[in-house]
Amino acid sequence: MAIRMLLAKIGIDAHDRGIRFIAYTLRDHGMEVIYTGPWQTIDSILKTALEEDVDILGISTLGGDYVLIPKLLQRFKKENVDIPIVVGGIIPTDIEESLKEKGVAAFFHPGTSPESIVETINAVLEARSGSHSRI
Question: What is the pTM of this model?
Fold first, then answer.
């Protein structure tokens, strides 16, 4: 069974070239990818994640909208939604550490290889389920 991954841009960040590339790359590696497009709200991401029954959520941020990620984590926790969240893009180191403490499972910086992203996603899901890779 293929990994179902939701990719989303949170807030007003419209820089979506990278996330579109990642969506195609993950599909080429056997994942089912749902990409919401830019300008998503926390509620719309939560709703889509639940409706699509995804295994993992990837948030891309390049325009400073990483400040919304703690609110997203808080909302998922409030709704008892236990979907691992990974973040890609440009995030200051101190913010990254804070987000890691709050529950972000992994970070991908510009230049991270697609193979490394796939390996990390598999590792995150394996750590949560104790099962072997699905792709």
Answer: 0.91
